[in-house]
Amino acid sequence: MVGSENGLTGSYIRWRSSRHGAITVRLEQALLLELLGPLTGRMLLDVGCGDGALAAVLARGGARVTGLDADPAMVVAARQRAKREAVPLTVVEGKGEALPFHPDTFDVTLAVTSLCFTRDATQAIAEMARVLKPDGRLLIGELGRWSLWSLQRRVRGWLGSPTWRAATFRTAAELRSSVEAAGLEVTTIHGAVYYPPFALAAELLAPVDGWFGRATTFGAAFIVAAAKKPLASNV
Prior knowledge:
43% of the residues lie in helices and 21% in strands. It is α/β, with parallel strands linked by helices.
């Protein structure tokens, strides 16, 4: 796999193979799948798909998935994953701020921990709304601002990490405002991953993580905003 020994693709592999990484990814995906609902036959766009791990899960669930990423190495890695896992996944290179698709194309548009690294997230959300069919669903999963995870990542940015120096962490209110500014109706906002960023905490607290998610988004390392596009829309 291109980049499997270094770069972001290698980072993804190391993260998912770690104890707390595997638990965290499982919780995040469970929340996304719950909010997505039935997938069979739905046209779905994954903006910032990375190496295609989530896109492949969604394709196996019955969605007709297109993954998009601005990084050519990620596009190659996602295509290799689709071939290796024999999943019907289309992957294209492109930027979230200028999606190469016609209006009203997709039943679902999805961006998971990608807008935090996008230069113009407002424009990217507007583009996701533009290519969404009327009554279609949008899901954005972002890194929560008020959590121990974001504090750890900020420190890493201050210490020189270019990835975390460039990241933007958002609150639930900021996510809601950005999505509504694109002309969409927010239907729900949920959080996940309330434990500190180490393995023992993940193992001990993962069973009650859903309880926190139902109570508040404060302290969540991962926040998901779900919205729908009105049937009569000027987006």
